[in-house]
Amino acid sequence: MSNTSSSSSSIRAIVTGHTRGLGEALAATLLARGIPVLGISRNRHATLASHGDATFDQVELDLSSVEAVAQWLRGDHLQRFIGDAQRVVLFNNAGTVQPIGPLDVQDPSAVAQSVILNVAAPMMLSTAFATASAGVADRRIVHISSGAARNAYAGWSVYCATKAALDHHARSVTLDASPALRICSLAPGTVDTDMQAELRESTTDRFPMRERFVEYKRTGKLTTPHDAAVKMIDYVMSDAFGKTPTADLRELP
């Protein structure tokens, strides 16, 4: 699978939730390949700038606040970062697995925050990205999806629903056939991140599948963030990306 069809200096990438887990691995891998990165997260990352010589820009932004995201998008930071790139990629990675549990134990405020972070923010950023990159020859949007988008799980109704929303968003955007724009809602598989730890720390009455995730960790069946990031970036930069609006890293050749 080809890593890129143009030089890394002509590519720029935006990664949300870049301070830990898969987002951190994505940003580090992109920077190591000489691709400038704009990281968007609630906090700054202290050490990522040392990964390669590429430009690393960071924005502190609460992606669970519609008002904060809207205010930032009214500025020109995104457009200035894109600049004269020939290819630009948006990784909508930030997300949460909370709230975990059946309806009668969910906090309504937590439900709202999850929907904003998992759905509203990536959709808002995608719309702004499409506008800001209108003159770019190759534009790519990656929603970080999940197997939970395609399968329902007890105790995970909010997460399943929000990830399914991103899948359907990608399907609809594909039908729009916007010039030079590719999109895919891409599931990375079971990756050893803080989200996995949250699931293992939950209780079986809230998340009946807890023991399965404990077993994944115990038997070494979790993919490392680095390995998932490398495979994801290779796919995203390939000619195959965008030919299908949803995909799973575990099913790619």
UniProtKB/TrEMBL annotation:
Its main location: cytoplasm. NCBIfam families: PRK07023.1. It comes from the Bacteria. The keyword Oxidoreductase applies. Keywords: Cytoplasm, NADP, Oxidoreductase. This is SDR family oxidoreductase. It is found in: Cytoplasm. Pfam families: adh_short (PF00106). It comes from Paraburkholderia edwinii.
